[in-house]
Structures are given as structure tokens and as C-alpha cells.
Amino acid sequence: MNSVFLYDRRVTDDSLLKVFRSFTQVTEPGELCNILIRWGNLNGSDTKANVVLNRKKPLKNCLDKEKIFEILRINKIRRPLFVQPRPDSKYPIIGKYFDSSCNLLQDKVVYSYAEAINSGADFFVEYIDLVKKYNVYIFNLNVFYLTKKTAVRTNTATAETNWVYEEIPSDLDHDTQKVHHLAQRALYVLGLDLGMAHVGIDVRGRPIILDITPIPVIPPKARELLQEKLDDYITNFRDKADDISQIENNNLAETNLGADPEFMLRDSYTGKLVYPSDFLERQGIIGFDERSEHRQGQFFPLAEVRPQPESCPIKLTENIRQILLIAASIIPPHIEWLAGSLQFEQYQLGGHIHFSNIDFNSRLLRALDNYLGIPIFLIEDPRTSVKRRRQYGWIGSFRIKYHGGFEYRTPGSWLISPQITKSCLSLAKIVAQEYCSLRRDYFVDTELQKAFYQSKKLYFYDIFEELWEDITKTKLYPQYAEHLAPLKNMIASGKHWDEKEDLRRAWGLI
Prior knowledge:
Blueprint lengths: L2 E5 L6 H6 L4 E3 L6 E7 L9 E5 L2 H7 L2 H10 L7 E2 L9 E7 L4 E7 L2 H5 L5 E4 L3 E10 L2 E12 L7 E7 L6 H16 L4 E9 L4 E7 L6 H27 L9 E4 L2 E6 L5 E2 L11 E3 L14 E3 L7 H18 L4 E4 L3 E2 L3 E2 L4 E4 L5 H18 L2 H7 L9 E3 L5 E3 L9 H16 L12 H8 L7 H12 L4 H16 L10 H4 L4
Parallel strand pairs: 1-2, 1-3, 3-4
Antiparallel strand pairs: 5-8, 6-7, 6-8, 9-10, 9-12, 10-11, 12-13, 14-22, 15-16, 15-18, 15-19, 17-18, 20-21, 22-24, 23-24
Helix pairs in contact: 7-10, 8-10, 8-12, 8-13, 10-13, 12-13
């Protein structure tokens, strides 16, 4: 196992090199390797490694601090807004400085227009009134160290207050959980595998990204924890390589799939919304989502199917069918069922797919975004998916489940028909099982991030052909080729699903 740490001398001290002592440490790229970690060093190509952490293009983006804020904006992640100083601007504002000698960002509070124009700042952002500040250190989508800004009283006569960042648990309270999740998402959409997010909680209790750095100063305790994460990563990489070699022999542990696709109810006589909570229980295999209309928690507009997990996507689809049959015996026949992205112009629907018996990591999430998220995006109705993604279905949308595993939340509700359901779940199975061989990442391109949120499908049709070629080369593809055909044919013909059609008809329930 050949692992390389490619670093920049200007931002790397001896204590950090000790963390990466199991790596070959270089300042110029060399021979082929299994794992390459970039630490502020943009030299050479990423093609000489099987896996690259902090890849060249994302790293370059993140050494341009203005670019960071732009990418966060595209992905609708809360961050201070850009400000163009004027005499009548609201002050204070924050001046951002980029020190090219050490690749570190410096901030300064600016209190007037005169001070702004003489500050030499590279750009300016709004000043946010904060009640809490955190530093979140992340490796491979895992928070390995979290600190909070805390007041420390001195013993001097003036009793001055010093501020330090002290280590806290990442699940200490609701605020730390919000900070934890936002930091994960921010580093992910920036394409980083290792870095630090500076996050605040504003006076309204909302988390906000203040800064991101891919080359943070790592405290001593954090170095120990990072070294443990690196050792685990190398071990898992080796184990996964062994797993890939066992696929042909059927010795590989199967990834399990689950789901909780949502749908809505419409009265066929009046065309009005019908609440599934009028007929269904909250819990169980067929129920309603906990999101209510804030009317004392009594009106729940989203129905939800919750089949038992299966290793086989075809069996999972059949489980969904059986649950829909049960629902058809409960819900009156004059009420239509609707899936897709958005219904009644205000209710966003999700086709969440659950994965278990698999390690969650950044490579897997990128594979899901590219090889599952893009194909499903191409069959969604662009008129509604663009509205849904104002609040839900973002790039890299996931949630860790309390019972283990995680759910992928980017797609709309594919419950439209059994053929589409079977195609989407079969593709999910292939991507999760063989993600290590699915290496393309088009969302490193910010123009494609924009196009995704704007539902500009024309940007993605050529890309899809390349993605699909990779899918057809996987070991599992022949097993599911027949079930993937409806998805492939829809995309090839430029069609999208009809989410105004009663899905009971497609499922043979009426």
C-alpha cells in the first residue's frame, strides 16, 4: 500500500509531518500511488493515484477564498453575503485578506467607508451578529475534532476576559449537531475530504459558515485523532480493494437497501389536497411524514411508504407494491395518489433511499451524486424539480440514521411507476456496491452545480453517456440490465416522468 502526502513547506510544520509518518512525504509529485493527500500543494496531476484526497481542482478553488463563498452561495449554504463598500453601507463589515505567502485567510472588522477603502482587503462580506463560534475539523465526512469559543477569566486585577477554543463533543447539544451537519455539507460541496470549517450560531439560532480552510492549523489533540482516522482509512481502503476482487466469487457482503418514498393525495372530484393523516397512522409500513402544516401538528400532507430493507432491489420493489396494496384498501378510491418532485405548488416530495451494511464516506456520496443523482435528475420534471431544490434535494443531501446506515435524499419521489422504481433502486444497488470503481465527479465544476439547481438538463446528457458507460462495466450490471432499461430509455428519448398522473394506475391498483 503506497500512500503519499504531497505538502507545501510554507504551511506544514514538523508536528503535522509526524501525523502523516506512515505516508511517503514529498513536495513534488512522483510515482504512481494508491492514496494521495494534497496539503496546500497544487503540483502535478491527480491521475497518478487511485484515490486523491483534497483533489487539485477543489483545492485550487478553496485557496481562492472568494470562490469558496461563491460555491457556498450556489449550494444555498448560509454564509456572510458579499458586500461592496459604499459611504451609505451598513457598518461594520468584514474585510477578507488572502496572504499568498502562507495560503491563510485573515479577517478584519471594518467600521467605516474610509477604513474600507484604505484596508487593502481583497473582498468584503457582511458582519454577522453571533452568539457562538466553533471550529469543526473534518476528514472523509467525519468530524474528528470540534472546538467552541469560550471565555476564560484571567487572575489579573482587571479581570480581563481571554477567549480560547476548547474541545467539546460533536453531539453535545442541538447547536453542535446543526454546526456539525452544516460543516460536513460545506466541505463536501467544495470537494474537500480534509479541512476545517469555522462556523457560527447567529442571534436567531441559525448555523452559518464563516470560513473554510483546506490547510488548517491542527491542535495537538486533533493531530492524534486525525492520525487514527488516517490509519482507519488506509485499512478500509485495503479491505475494500480485497472486497472488489471477491465480487466475482460472491464473497462480498451485500449492501442492503431501504427507502421511504413520499406521495400525496388529491380528491379527484375537487382537485384539492387530502391529508393522509385522515386515514393512516403515523408509524408503520404505510404512514405519514412528521412534517405538518404548523396547525398544532394536526395536518400532515405527505404519505410515506416504509418497506423492510432488502439486499435485492427487485424484492424491495415488490415489498413496496405490497404496501401500496394495503394503502389502497384503506384510502377511499376517489382519492388520487401523486409522486414526483412538487405537488400543489408548495409541497416538496423526496425519494429517499437508505443504505446499510456499508461504510459512509465522501467517495460513496460522490458516486451517488453522479451515478444515481444525475440519472434520476434527468427523468424528473424540470418545472417542479427546480422548485423543489430551493429547499430540498441538494447535491450531497444525506442523513445518518439512528439505527445504522444512512439515507440519500437528493432524488425526488420515484414512486411514479413500478418500472421507474425498479430502475432507480437497481441503479442505487450497483452504485453502492461498486462505488470504488465509479470515479467520475462532474460536480467539481461549479457551472454544473448551477445547472443542476436550475434543472438545465442539456448540460448533462453527454455526461450521462459517460456515466452509463461506467455503469455497464460494473460486475453487477448484467444482473440488473433488464430493470435499468426503462431509465436509460427515458433519458435517451429526453422524456421525464408525469407527476400529475395517478400512480395507482401505473402500479395496477385501479
